[in-house]
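Before a colleague's protein record goes any further, I have to sign it off. What it holds is a sequence and that sequence's fold in token form. Would you go through it and say whether the fold makes sense for this chain? The record follows directly below this note.
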Amino acid sequence: MGVAGRAKLILASASPRRLDLLRQIGIVPDVIDPAYVDESPQPRELPANLVIRLAEAKAHTVAARHPGAWVLAADTVVACGRRSLPKPETETLARACLALLSGRRHRVLGGVSVVTPKGMTRTRCTMTMVSFKRLSSAETDRYIASGEWRDKAGGYAIQGLAAAFVKSINGCYFNVVGLPLHDTVALLTGLGFDVHATAKPLGVPA
């Protein structure tokens, strides 16, 4: 059990960004247990369907290992049109992502899925529109050299150096970082989870 007899909250993610965002609003998971599911899109799968499927797959995978617990899972997909951009593992792929994003708007889709201690699953998809400036070759080269693109949806991190590329944003900023906080809290509280039960005073290590 978690705090004061409450069922444990399991964060099904290895992302330090998601953990930091939860801690920012006073939600401290009892356990971090990443799911590590295959994130490859299925043939002709739309980005919104992909992000929902992956969030639910992560939640169900981890819930099976922690019966009777609350499980929170999330996934982020950057989409250009009907195309889901990858989390690039090579500089070549990262450059291709930046070339697609340069000078145009794109969508960032955040899927959040919660499994309750009784096994009920609820999932939300949050969309944020982001507009990039047109990137010069020098700007692309510097960003690639930074390595910040690694393991980032769409090959960029809005909370880092890529903030200079963003002309405008319409929607939840935190969704682009990795977790739509308002929708996550609304989902948890709507299912009966006390979001204040995990809180610790500021400055107290988790």
Helices lie at 16-24, 47-63, 91-101, 137-146, 173-177, 181-190.
